[in-house]
Amino acid sequence: MFGLNTKDTKSLFIVAFLVVVAPFILNPFPAASAMAQFNAGYPDLMQKFVIFGIFAIGFNILFGLTGYLSFGHAAFLGIGSYSCVWMFKLLGYNVIPGIVLSVIISGIFALAIGFVSLRRSGIYFSILTLAFAQMSFALAYSVLSNPKFNLTNGETGLQVYANDPQWFHRDSLPDLPHLFGLSMRATHKLEIGAWEFQLNAGYYLCALMMLVCFYLAIRIFRSPFGLMLRAVKSNQQRMNYTGLNTRPYTLAAFVISGMYAGLAGGLLSAVDPLAGAERMQWTASGEVVLMTILGGAGTLIGPVLGAGFIKYFENIFSKINDHVLHSWFAFLPDGLEDFVVFLIHPFIGKGWHLTLGILFMLVVIFLPGGLVEGGQRLGKWLHRRKAKDTPSAKTEPAE
Amino acid sequence: MDAFLLQILNGLDKGSAYALIALGLTLIFGTLGVVNFAHGALFMIGAFCAVTLQRLLNLSFETIDPSQKDFLGNPLKVKTPYIESWFGPDLGGAIIDWSVPLAILFAIPIMIAIGFVMERGLIKHFYKRPHADQILVTFGLAIVLQEVVKYFYGANPIQTPAPDALNGIANLGAIIGMDIVYPVWRIVYFCFSVLIIAAIFAFLQFTTFGMVVRAGMADRETVGLLGINIDRRFTIMFGIAAAVAGLAGVMYTPINPPNYHMGMDFLVLSFVVVVVGGMGSLPGAVLAGFLLGVLESFASTTWATTTLPGINQIIIYVVAIVVLLTRPRGLMGLKGVMED
Amino acid sequence: MSILEVKNVGKRFGGLQALSKVNLSVKENTVHAIIGPNGAGKSTLLNCLVGKLMPDSGSVMFDGQSVLGRAPYEINQMGISRVFQTPEIFGDLTVLENMMIPCFAKRDGAFTLNALPGVQKQKDILQKAEQMLEEMRMSDKRHMHAAALSRGDKRRLEIGMCLSQDPRLLLLDEPTAGMARADTNNTIDLLKEISDQRDITIAIIEHDMHVVFSLANRITVLAQGTPLVEDDPENIRGNPKVREAYLGETA
């Protein structure tokens, strides 16, 4: 269906289903219970899941297929965010122009940056993209926010002010990002027994976008273009001597993934109309690399999993504090309790980045194929155990 | 003219730091074929070696001086560093005052040890893995190292003053009849880096060890075939590169109070320096380091920043892009070295 | 009618004159071997023909057009395919995918942004690739990863990939280097079959005299960067100059 084979159609439907019911399955604990802090089904976090899912899907088109490791993709995320807020400032709060512009502008930037960076490959390419991203960050943070020419509003971040033109804004429209009048913050609260579920307009818009992106990514993966990109990763020499010009292929992949990042940035602004330069920093670029690797670079579903995994744990880890830890380990003798809390303390709360770094290393060292490969290995192992168990079960009675 | 020379001088200290880090990066790169994203973290750890030594030297015990009262009328508590009580206030005070230069001695064994552990424990397993994996694992390590430092030392910059004797400013211009006032410590830093760079080059040029390493940089396989244990030498080179980065960090502390993310800030620029200088070229790394440092200093003048606001923030990147477009191998890059 | 004309080509690397005044004319539908001792400049010459190196002087004409200054992919699109000394294939892809890529290059040119229709929908390409695999007797391995193939199969696959583009000229760089005797003979048979059945010119650089004399109907001997003689195999065998420069060395 949709020009996909059965297996891909199935994974598309699974993802679509999960995304639609996410507000329910991510809130498995009753709202008043102690476990409610592990719920992830509130709009802010769910929006992040799907937006960073888009970011990672796009990054994977470049890194997963061609093997070119960009360390500066956050620049496009930031450019997308700024573009979208500018549309809010000039035209009004409807999200459509903002999202469209963010994709276009980030595509143009990706074309320029890719044109230069792709003259080199391997390490050089990674360093070049990193340098470009840092340059964009410096531009956004200070250079382009001077009184003469204020494009980014520097440290404060770009936002809509009362004296902005907003040409198409009418009083009947919400004073926040909206889709033809439907506010992105509109949330329908559903209370079923002790549970509370939140259905948020912004989330469903982002989720729809992510499904479209996911679908397009599948098409790209299965297309002749995707095959060429995988060939670039495998053997550039053979590509060249087979009459194929590798550079436009890699550039096209770079621009496409830059546009995905721009879309993600635009959506970030659409759900929260404030664009700051910190979105472009190298840590943000590193994060999307980690999401992709953690999920499984080069696989379709991996980046989405990786994005969800990291954003979920970022959220949970940042929320846990010593107080919570003490309540968990209260069953231990006092001294031991304090000791355990002391051991875990550096990794939680503000220590999330430490956990992230360690996670990063562990994944690269032990599981370069990411969660998808881990799942496959686990599946094989279980399968083998099952296969082993069956004959032994047969021989037992004979003994 | 005076202002011109002053800008050059101003660029030299930052340039020295770039050159030292870029030199270490190139050494690791050329010998082990590994891109070390954790190299900036080594620079940062070096800086925190200085902080640690300063804190160790300032460990104090309290005594109560009944003859004096504090503002609440209680007997005054006087803190005396152990060092002062052991060596007397004069020598002890001097040791505390000179903690940054002393930290060099303190940092060398620590940095070499960290380098060895890093190479043997982690990097070694990544020689045969793709470059992307090397970048990623060292990137992860860099995050871990800086978060650990942040955990123990906090997020704020820590003042680590230079010895009083070297803390002032000197009129350098007096020698040549001009008026150029310049902080003494920056001159010290520049001389120190020139010394280290010279030592590294001499070491590579005139010792057998260095000769083998250079041969290994040029053609690892052939040297391996000669029956020379190149791996062990490369481990030692990694230790040396770590020590160079660490010393650069130690001596930089009085110029810029260290914080946990200084490593990454310098690393990105040092990578750009390596790219501009030419991948795999040691003289290129040094030359480009100083060149870009000076250029950045010129871009920071009031004239430059009023003409083109923010030019000082992006000048290095702009230069890197221009160099790469016109000379893809960098200023002194060799053909065939790290082509991809 | 000669399809490849090399005239007065010279190439210098620093102090080393790798090639000087190389003249070579490869006739259409022949198997032309270029032989010579180590360091005679065979590989340098080959690299000048495919766009990897730019000669300092001289001209290289393929079918009346100059190839100099063109990128390797452009030269391939003109109709020259190259087989490497160690097989260059797409190790991460399956054998069938390997075979499809040159077919795409032939059909769509050096670059086409064909990002939405599935590969499986490209019936003409699939058919062509399957047919070529059949011809190479590799159909049973179509879903294997190319990296897992044996050395001999990798070589077959690479030759098949080149042939699927229907090149006018096939360049082979020591195609049997490092092969066992049986694999070498298989490769000789394969190449013979190709030259007999197809409208193709083959230029081959080779060290192994057995291969050269089993295949070639024209031989150029290169020594110290210059062609020594160009003649039919029978005459090369008895030529005292060649014996001195080349065969004498191995005897």
UniProtKB/TrEMBL annotation, chain A:
Keyword field: Cell membrane, Membrane, Transmembrane, Transmembrane helix
Mode of membrane association: Multi-pass membrane protein
TM helices/strands, residue ranges: 12-29, 49-71, 91-116, 123-144, 201-221, 248-268, 288-313, 354-375
Gene Ontology MF: a single term: branched-chain amino acid transmembrane transporter activity
GO cellular component, one term: plasma membrane
Protein localization: Cell membrane
Protein name: Amino acid/amide ABC transporter membrane protein 2, HAAT family
Organism: Epibacterium ulvae
Automatic annotation (TrEMBL), chain B:
Gene Ontology molecular function terms on file: transmembrane transporter activity
UniProtKB keywords: Amino-acid transport, Cell membrane, Membrane, Transmembrane, Transmembrane helix, Transport
Family stated for the protein in its record: Belongs to the binding-protein-dependent transport system permease family. LivHM subfamily.
Keyword DNA damage: no
Membrane topology of the entry: Multi-pass membrane protein
Name of a matching Pfam family: BPD_transp_2
Record field: transmembrane: 15-35, 42-61, 98-123, 187-213, 234-255, 267-295, 307-326
GO cellular component: plasma membrane
PANTHER family: ABC TRANSPORTER ATP-BINDING PROTEIN (PTHR11795:SF442), BRANCHED-CHAIN AMINO ACID TRANSPORT SYSTEM PERMEASE PROTEIN LIVH (PTHR11795)
The protein, known as: Amino acid/amide ABC transporter membrane protein 1, HAAT family
Subcellular location: Cell membrane
Keyword Transmembrane: yes
TrEMBL record, chain C:
PROSITE patterns xrefs: ABC_TRANSPORTER_2
Gene3D superfamilies: P-loop containing nucleotide triphosphate hydrolases
GO cellular component: plasma membrane
Family annotation (InterPro entries): AAA+_ATPase, ABC_AA/LPS_Transport, ABC_transporter-like_ATP-bd, BCA_ABC_TP_C, P-loop_NTPase
Keyword match Nucleotide-binding: yes
Domain of life: Bacteria
Keywords: ATP-binding, Nucleotide-binding, Transport
GO molecular function: ATP binding; ATP hydrolysis activity
Entry annotated with the keyword ATP-binding: yes
Domain ABC transporter intervals: 4-249
CDD domains reported in the protein's UniProt record: ABC_Mj1267_LivG_branched
Name recorded for this polypeptide: Amino acid/amide ABC transporter ATP-binding protein 1, HAAT family
